[in-house]
Amino acid sequence: MQQGGSPTPFDRNMGTKMAAKAVEWFIDKLTMETEFNTPESSVMCGIQRRQYVFSPIQALKLYTDFKHRIACKQWWLKLRPLLRILAKHESTYEEEGMQVEEPDEAIA
């Protein structure tokens, strides 16, 4: 869930929907299953392609870099240059702008 700062209406709405989905999943598992030692009995709720899905924790091991505590494939890093431009971040122009060399003053 959201970390830091005050939650926005979007955060509150998403949290409410996730909680409702989690309760539905929990009730479904309690009424339909008798064994709770399968990989599907320990899951994490997330959003994939605008849908709330439950992923088994064991399956998520393949996509997690536990040493650095991040996802192995960080697709959102490709968006950083665009976000810097949209935010008018000063380093955007220094790092990504064209380098103009100063003319040699000894020639004049």
Q: Which key phrases capture this entry?
A:
single chain, 108 residues, alpha+beta, two-stranded antiparallel ribbon, 4 helices, extended
List the helices and strands and how they pair.
Elements: H1 9-32, E1 43-48, E2 51-56, H2 57-60, E3 64-65, E4 70-71, H3 80-87, H4 90-96
Antiparallel strand pairs: 1-2, 3-4
The N- and C-terminal alpha carbons lie at a distance of 63 Å
Number of helices: 4
Shape: extended
Helix and strand string, N-terminal first? Answer: HEEHEEHH
> Major beta sheet, specifics?
2 strands, antiparallel
Summarize the structure.
The chain has 4 helices and 4 strands; from the N terminus they run H-E-E-H-E-E-H-H.
Description:
- The chain has 108 residues and is an alpha+beta fold.
- It has a domain at 9-72.
- It has four helices and four strands.
- The strands form two sheets. It has a two-stranded antiparallel sheet with strand order 1-2. Strands 3-4 form a two-stranded antiparallel ribbon.
- Strand 3 (64-65) and strand 4 (70-71) form a beta hairpin.
- The chain starts with 8 loop residues before the first helix and ends in a 12-residue tail after the last helix.
- The mean pLDDT is 80.
